[in-house]
Amino acid sequence: MKDFFLDKFEYDFYATKYWIKCIENQEDNVTDFVKRSISHILNAHHIWIARLTTNEIESEIWDILPISYLTRLHEQTYRQIVDFLEKFELEEKINFHSSEGVKMTKNVIDVLYHMLNHSNYHRAQIVMELKQHGLEHPSLNFISYR
Fold it and tell me: What residue spans define the domains of the chain?
């Protein structure tokens, strides 16, 4: 199961990295919605890996990050995810507080699945926004990637 998640996070890393480059290339034309959404994807991954590893959270879920910072945060978080996957058991449960402050206990495997699903959801929103504004919007379907 770890190999499954390593593989899917590798794709997720590739897809988000491609999106960051796409947004950087047309930064002057992308909307605040796009900037907020790509930041949200990265912030969410950062927050979830911090919850899994009990690291300190450096950004909030809806903080808009400088475009120049996105790649660094993305690469850092991906390395932390891979490191986590190689060291921890997926069947474990973690305790954390949600963004709303609610105490929760969840299976690590569910958190990892949520992270992947969440990224895809928001990348799809970014596609729609870029299309509506006539901007470049890559197609990054998993099956094409594979």
Answer: 2-145
